[in-house]
Amino acid sequence: MANEPLQLNLGSLRSAMSLTMHTHHASRIWHGRAPTEGRPGIIGLNGYLSVMNKMKRGAEQDDPYSDWWMLRIEDKLADTKTRLQTLREQVEQALSDVPPALSLGENMNVQPVKLPLFVNAQLGFMAVYLLADYDDLARKLILAHHTALIDRSTLERWLNDGAHALRSLFALAQQYRYSGTTRDDFAAKSAAARAAQEKFGELPQDVLEGTRRSRFAPPIARRGNRPEVPSADASEPGLTDGAADTTAQDEDAKA
């Protein structure tokens, strides 16, 4: 009995996370906009996170199109980060015109909103960081306008430029669809693979072969041990108020 291995029934790792926002501008990007008559809806960060979770599960199931989408989103995230950084440099330049005798404190909301985060995909976290950056940028822009360092039109233009960069990222993610195929289907030139090519287009050869994947791509699950197939409609806008509609699971620990 003493030599029997000890069986440990360990659960998943969890970490409590939340995002604090100080501006209405960032809050609107979080929630997006529900569709109304004559006006389409706008996907928010919570809808984007839902898509990223499905995209990650698709890549885990060896769907080459999910891998291709992860690469596209990763590139778009880098582009969005660059755009926000350019705006940050512009507002920092404006704030540098404050006379040395004047001290400006942080522009903080006396009653910020704290939202719980349940994020399952690394590309989701990267967008959360960008929204936090935009919230900080908006606070600095509002301060610069309040202290007469920029005018109203400049304030609105820079705020809109930052919001557009984030919404463009979310809108791209909203186009993702799970193909329902695997690389084995393409190797066998199956009917499913031909149908996927017709519907979603040709893939770069290195993506199809699996030699080029996102740096955050999950390990491919072994056949017979694959998770539940993601919903075919991965464009859910997720425009409801509150926390992101995702499930916090320690999927990486399975690798």
Automatic annotation (TrEMBL):
Pfam (any one): AcaB
Classification of source organism: Bacteria, Pseudomonadati, Pseudomonadota, Betaproteobacteria, Rhodocyclales
Name listed for the protein in its UniProt record: TIGR03761 family integrating conjugative element protein
Stretches assigned to coiled coil: 70-97
Organism field: Aromatoleum toluolicum
Region of interest: Disordered: 202-255
Assigned keywords, A-Z: Coiled coil
UniProt xrefs under InterPro entries: AcaB (IPR014996)
